Every structure is written in structure tokens, then in C-alpha cells.
Amino acid sequence: MTRLGSLFGAAALMLGAAITPLMAKTPPGVLVVAKNIDDIVSLDPGQAYEFTGGEVVSQIYERLVEYNPAKIDELKPGLASGWKISDDGKSIVFTLRDGAKFASGNPVRPEDVVFSFRRVIVLNKPPSFILKQFGWTPENVEQMVRKTGANEVTITVAGNFAPSFVLNALGARVGSVVDAETAMKNAKDGDLGNAWLSRNSAGSNSYRLQTWRPNETVVLVANPNAQHKAKTPQVVFAHVSEAATQRLMIEAGDADIVRNLGPDQIAAVTGKPGIVVETYPQAAVHFISLNVKHEKLNKPALWEAMRYMIDYDGMANTLFKGQMKVHQTFWPVGFPGAVEDRPFKLDIEKAKGILEKAGIKDLSIAIDMISSSPFTEIGQSIQATFGQAGVKVTLVPGATTQVITRYRARQQEGAILYWGPDFMDPHSNAKAFAYNTDNSDASYQSTTTWRNSWMPPAAVSAKTMAALVERDPAKRLDMYRELQREILHNSPWAMTFQAQAQVALRDNVKGFVHGATNDLIVYRDVEKK
Amino acid sequence: MSSLARVLPVLLSTAFGLVSTLAGLLLVTFVIGRVMPIDPVVAVVGDKASAQTYAAAREQLGLDQPLYVQFGRYIAGVARGDLGTSTVSNRPVAEDIARVFPATIELATLGILIGVAFGVPLGVYAAHRLNQWPDHLIRFLALFGFSTPVFWLGLLGLLVFYSWLGWIGGPGRIGIAYRFTVPPRTGFMLVDTLLAGRPDAFRNALSHIVLPATLIGYYAMAYIARMTRGFMIEELSKEYVTTARIKGASEARVMWLHAFPNILVPLITVIALSYGLLLEGTVLIETVFSWPGLGLYITNGLFTADMPAVLGGTLVVGLIFVILNKASEISYAFLDPRTTR
Amino acid sequence: MSAPASPAVAPAALSPAPASRREARIALARQRLRRIVANPSSLIGLVIVVTFVLVAIFAPLLATHEPNAQDFAVRLSPPSAAHWLGTDQFGRDVYSRLVYGARPTLLIVLMVVLLSAPFGFVLGLVAGYAGGLLEAVLMRITDIVMAFPRLVLALALVAVLKPGLINAVIAIAVTAWPPYARLARAEALALRHADFVEAARGLGMGARGIVFGQIMPLCMSSVSIRATLDMAGIILTAAGLGFLGLGAQPPLAEWGAMIAQGRDQVFDAWWVAAAPGIAIVVVSLGFNLLGDGLRDVLDPKHHG
User: Fold this and answer.
1) In CATH, which of 3.10.105.10, 1.10.1270.20, 3.90.550.10, 1.10.630.10 is domain A281-500?
2) What is the ipTM of this complex?
3) Which residue of A27, A124, A372 is in closest CB contact with B177?
4) Confidence (pTM)
């Protein structure tokens, strides 16, 4: 079936190519997106956990509730047309949208929602922790997620959570609703269709997956049964890892959208005829952390001095021009509750003074970094500025998994990393940066605090948990603001930047929407005019 | 003395050499894979997995077994064509390699054709004009080839011929507009475009392969020209050549009809060896040209710490390298009457 | 290299007194040097190599800027009077980095040769002289390593050892020794029954003395040719590792890594990648020319 589809697509493309024989132009009806897609591991919404995978999955599957990509604090109906929160806040009744259909033609039923959530818990893949926070287990999930009416699903959480937190988590990509019949028809060895769904699709959103060839291409075609019909029938993601190549492609018109240009390529294409450059703030925040397990680094004076040894503005205005904004708190700007304070800037003399007063000298730090942009640039810049303040930095580059392996095991001294929230709720970051109640080696946590062997003051950890259950939304956000300010001044890391995505598009491409995360990139309204 | 009796010992020792070399290669790749400072489990389950998920995955990967058991499993796996599962694409490495390898073969084959087409005549000519300016020029060309980083030449080539002059297609095997229109049949882009009856696509593919193939062809040429020259000089110093010259054979006749056939055996060996070297050399050139072949697969694996991919790729390159080596030894034994050892 | 284990007993046939022997050596060296200098291409090679070594030694005097000093304000500026070869993406002076980059390159070349040549050489000598099972085993190992794809294996090795200058040296050296072993074995085989060796044996000299005192000195010239020619290859391999980010680490200026850093900007700021590439070409060419010349001078057995 897919083979036939791809032949058909190929024929359509061939026709397009025949009409425009020599001019390097993308065929009409096909949107060509040049992008590095080597991070895709699986396109199963219960498993996809990487940037590109998340982006693709979001075009294919709908969730009960969805964000407005343009206004991140607005949750709007997705597959659910409405919902009601119980008085105790522990259960929510969702009403499914009338007439919703999967690409297969099957109607979307409460059973599909129950299946999808149960599937996430049973498969137990990396993103499953988002739903497991509700206290769901393979044993109890069928009681916690139930069909309670012809068109109704009721979900129950074990524990006290702010309802906004629950809805935010369900709005994450792991809350995607899968066509149960199609998935089970292709299930093998009790995998609930995992192997098949890794390379095929069974969703109700505007596109369905036609082809995925690793490190080569992903092809999406319009889903005729979708509520929001796609305006462009086909979206082709072409794997191009080189930024310099992407630049030449957008100039030549070989691609409609290129996604991985660096600041220098962006500067080169800006103002060129036929090309438009757009900038979108992202949710990812960058930081430089010290592992306080090492006694030489367990010094608040050093942490304070470090914040003055980073050339925030130099990097943001030149090296990363347009792609990083100086940001020094743990929750990104543009999200409700973010604090925009940025009290620190490069001040070598001040840093030296702090270090001297604390009697810190002859310090050398080995800092782990992922050996790709922007980490290598940040590394080389802080290596120079730390050096001016008398702190010797040795950079330890490695592949992402290499760096993470050491970070997980708390073996690093310092690290240059970034953090993207797993779901659009401040708790996602507060737990990572402002909570740790068990610092022992045995109690592994994926939080930034634990991985840097740091225990925030007990009151801070307590406040993080109190905010999680606070039911007054305004008060809840205030608590997160307080947490950000506490951590800003007292933590063994320096937050540096908030990322900004820069995308170059051909000027005939209209309607591209790029929200703050890859989940919030929307292709269905894109048109080539 | 029958020729088989003469050749058999060589054959046996070569077979033994092949097996022991392969075993050595397997041991090396296995050891590298085990001492890797990357947690393969993290690569599978991701950064934020819970402790239980982690433990389950570790067991599934067989990493809780003793080393010799793991080595045994590794060899058995390789023998079945199982090179492990890529931690990035989540697919069998063997399957991945089967997909990317034609791209490398296509590039290396075109490269060796260019290398032979230019290297052999140049080498012969240099021997003919020994110690005169053509000889010096050819020698310098060869030395220049031995002295230039191929990735740098590739980068400059892209800059000049693609960005400045626009004469060639850029990185990749074929333009994006064509990329999804040619059904992959053989995996060789030049062949597939022709099979699909698409001369425009063929031209486009050709414009992409011409620069990388010429570059690696240049390196092959440098090596082949130098070796050809050496063989010819040795051959030309022999008595029968002098005799032929005295008999009044033309110089071209002496070179090509008398001397040249006699250097074919060592020359074929050299070509086989340089083919192996080219396969290896494509690692860097593929990175520069975003050529989706085995070399790029290996370097991508390095950057994503995908050790099964890196080691699988290393093993395959090593296998071909070793087999080409040994095959040339065997053909040498059969074809060259002077072989005694 | 390893000193003779027993006092060198010179072969009877050519046994001048020690004093005149030194003189003879000096005379021979002088004569060889003259022959190298007489050949234009090897002279060019010699000049390049000597210049390269001098640049490495006197880098601080030749550089116009501190090689790691960053200045974002002037990043990616084209060649000018202030920056002879322009600046890179951190605003560092490319010329000064190029000059300092001679140091890691020289270091890598020397260390690889010093690690691999003596090892392979001794192994080959022992195998060739001893013969029998020992020879078979040692040469089997040599053949196995010889058949490995060197660059790919070096990549995999560095990935394990973690990227860095020293680890790049180790990864290259691990696969660089077999040619020396083969060479030394071939020479030892040829010399093992030579008259003067038989004579020394007759005089009651031990195997160790014969191998290191008699045979080794005679193999030195072919080994030094091989090593010189090898150096160009080592420079290229090291640059390849640096290009892939597996060699010398920032902020150290290393030519291969400098090319890699200029790669993303090659279409806009070509000088960042062009300059270190030219440096690599020139220096490798120097070693190749010199090696070729040495072979002509030192190795009379070599044809053409």
C-alpha cells in the first residue's frame, strides 16, 4: 500500500520535475524542507522523543488538548471538544469532537484514547514518564483512564496536582491519540504496534506518513479525513546536515524552507531576493553547570564569580547573532511565569575580586560539551573569558550520548548543556532546577540539580512541590517566579541563553507556523503562492 | 612440477592468513566496542529514562553477560550477518550498510576508473621519458597527490566549482528535485536514473558525482602512475626489451606490446589495493560532499556515538580491505611464475 | 634508538680504528648531504622541512597576535594589514594560529615516528633473525595489523580513547608500525647469513649483539627513508582526525581542526579554511620531496 502510494507520489513529482526541467525549483504542491533529520529514532508517538521526530509526529496525530502555537499560554480543544474538571481536581472528563476520523477512515472513539494512554504506559519508552507522573502504572491505567460515555473519556490522577499541570502534560506529544484498530492490526509479539508505528502512521491530524528513510527523507501526504485539511498536499523533509549546503539550496530554490542555518549563513541570505528570514523564540534554555561533588567546585563564591566570567552579550550579538538571546532564569521568556531578570554580564575584574576574597586560586575545571554548534562555540568563548579571570578550562568534547553518559553518572566537573521542557508547564523546569531531596548516588534523577550533585535549600524544594499542587493559577505562577529568582542567585550553574530558531523561507511560502518547541511547528496552512 | 603443487601452499597460507586476519579484526572491533566510554544503554533508552527502564534495556542488550560470552555472541552474530542494531536509527546495522554501501561503491568505482585511465598511461609515459620534464611533472603531480588532504581539496572544489562557477551539482548524490523521483533499483544513482529513462536526472547525478570521483580518482592516479612507472622502468631494463629495440621495433611498440603486458600482474595487484584504499579514503570525501555512503555512515556514527554503526562500518571496510589484499596475493601466486613463497 | 647491547665489534672486512671511523662517518654524512643538496627537488624538500621546524620553534617570535586571543568585533574579516591572513569565527588571527599550528603538527609527526618506528623495527629484526615459530607468529601479527584500514581504525580508536592530541598519536601509531617490521625483517633475512654476520657469530657474539650491533646499523638508512616518507602520511592522517574533531582540541591551533572550523564559513570566508590547507600541503610536500631525495642518495638498491 505504501509502495503504491510512493509510486504515485513519485509520479506526481516526476510530472512536476518535467514541467520545470532545468530551473532548480521545487514542484508545486510539494513543500521541500531541508533539515538535519538524523535525530529521528522512531515516529511512534509513544516513543518519539527527539526534535525532528516530535515535529513529524505532531503533524500526524492529534491530542485531546492542544496549544495555540502563537500564544503558548492558551490551551485549546484538540480531539476533545471540551472538558470538565472535578471539584477535587483529581479527574477530568473529556468530550470527544463529533465526527473526528482517523486517516484510515475509522472514527475516533473513547476506546482509542484509552488504548493510546495505556499503550504509552505499557510500552514504557522514554517519554512515558510524562504520563507516569499521574501515578499511572500498567496495572492501574485501565482504571485511571476509562470510557465513561459514548463520547466521553474520564482520566483520574493519583495524587494532588494543579489541573493546569495535568492538562499541560496531556498536551505533550506523548498524549497523541492513535487509531487502536490499525495499530493492533499491525501489532507483533505484543508490541502494541510499536515496530509498525515507528515507520507508519495511524493518526487523525492533517498529514499521514508516507515514507521515512533514515538520514534521507520523510514524506508526509495530506490526510483526506482530517478536520483541518492540509493546504499543501505533500511535505518532504530532505536530510541535509550541512548548514552551508542548506544555504546554497535556499538561494537556488532547491528547497522551500531551510531550518539549520547558522548565524553566518543567515546573515548571508538576509536581504537576498526571494528569501525571507524569520526568527522564533524557543523554549530551550542553555546553561553552564558545575558538579559540586568535586570539593573544589562546591563554593558559592565560585558560582557567583562564574556568572561574571561569561561574555553573554558578545556571544549573543556576534557568534550567535539572532539565534540566542541572553536569558538567565530557568523558565523561558514567552511562557507564563517567566522572569526576565538578567543581572549578570561579563565583568572580569569583579569576578577576580570575588574569587580573591574567597581565596580561590589556581583553579582548573574540565568542562564537558557536546561537540557541535553552539556548544563548541560557547566552550571556546568561556575558555577564553574564564582564563582571563584566572580559571583554567579544559574542554572535553563528545557526542551527545557520550556527554550524557558521564553527566548521568555525575562524573563531569563542568558541563555546557541546554534544557528543553518536556511539557509546557513550569513544573517541568522547576523540578529540574529547583528540586532535589535525595542527593545520594543511588537515587538517580534526571534533574539538573541531582546531576550536578546539588541540593537546593530545603525550602526551595518544598516550594517547588507546593507550586505543583497550587490550584490558584495566579498564585501558582508567582511561586514559580520566586523560585526562578532564588535559583538565579544561588545555584552551581549559570543560565546563559534562550534559543531562537531562525528559518529561511522562499518568499512565496506563506502560512508557516513555528511555535516555541518543535511540537508546535505547523505545516497544514502552508501554501506556495 | 605441476602448477597446482606450486600454488597450493600459497593458497593455503593465504587462506590461513585471511582467517587469522579476520579474527584479529573482529577482536579489535569487539574490544573497541566494549571499552567505549559511552553507555550503550543510554543511547537506547534516552536521557530521562527511569532506573527500571534502564536496567531492563541493559539486560535486553546482553550487557550483563561476561565478556567472553559477549564476544562469542558477537562472532556468531557477525557470521549470521548480524552487526548489531544502530542506536540512532534503531535498525539493524547490516541493513543500514546494505542501503548506504552502493553509494560508496559507485563513487569509488568511478574514482578507480578515472585513476586507471589517467594513471597507467601517465606512468608508462613517465618511464618512457625518464628523468626528462614529463617524468618530473608526473612525479610532482603524484607527490602533490600524496601531500594534499583530500577533505581540503574537496572543500575548495566545492567553493570554486559549485559556489563560484556553478559548473557542478553540490553536495549529495542528486538534486533535491530529483531525489524522490528516481526509484532505487540497483542503488547506483547513475544506473537507476538511466533505468528510469531519465536523462535529465542522469545528467544531474553526473554533475554531483564528477567532483568527488575526480578527486579520489586523482589520489588513485597518483599511486597508480607512480607504481606503473616503477614497474615499467624495471621491465625496460630487461634484456628482451633491448633485443626488441635492436630489432628495430618502434618505441611505442616496445612500450605497449612488449613491456606493458609483463607488468599487468603487479599492476592489477596495485589497482586492487588502491581500490581498497579508495574505499577507505571515501570516509573523508563523503563527509565533505554529504555523500550518503558508508564513510558518512561511519563518521555520523562517530558524532552520534552510535558505536554499533561505527564498528559495523569499520568491520565491513576492513573485510573488503583484507579480502582485496588476499585476493591480489592469490592472483599473484597464480599468474606470476616467479612466485616462490 | 636503542644502543648496542654489547660493544660494537666492527665487521672484520671494514674495521678502521675508532677515531678515523668517526671521521669517516662525518665525511660520509657530508657527502650525502652534498648529494641531497645537489638534487633540486630534495633541496626544496629540505628547505621546507627545516623552515617548518624553525617556524614551530620560533612561533612566538613570528606570530603577530596571541593565537587564542578572541575578538568578536573583527570576526571573519578578510586578509588585511592588521590580520595578514584574516580572522576566524572568534576573531582570532589566522596567520598567528597558522604559525603556532606548526607545533602540534611537528609534535604529532615526531611522536608517531618515535613510537611506531622503533617498535616495528625491533620486532621485524627479531623476527627476521630468529626465524622459525617466533618469526611466523610475529609476522602473522604484523600482517594482520597491516591489513587493517588505517584511517577507519584510527577513527574508531580515537572514539574510544576520547579525542585529543596524544590519543590521536596513539591511534595513528598503533597502525603505523607494520611497514617498519616488514622492512626490518626483510633486511635481517638478507643479512642473517651475510659473511660478516657469520664471522661475528664465529667470534662468539650473542644473538642480541649481532642483531643490534651488526644488522641494525645497516638497516638504519632504509628505515629513515621510510620514516621521512611516512611523515607526510602522518600529517595527513592527523589533519583528517583534526578535521573530524577527533584530534587536537580547542583552543589549540591545529591545521586540520582549523580547516574544520572554517568549513561552515567556506563560502563566505574562504581564507579561514584555505590557509591551513596550504600549510599542510606545503609541509607534506616537503617531507615527500625530502624522503624521495633521501632514497635516491641513501638507498642504492632502489630503482628509479
Assistant:
1) 3.10.105.10
2) 0.84
3) A27
4) 0.83
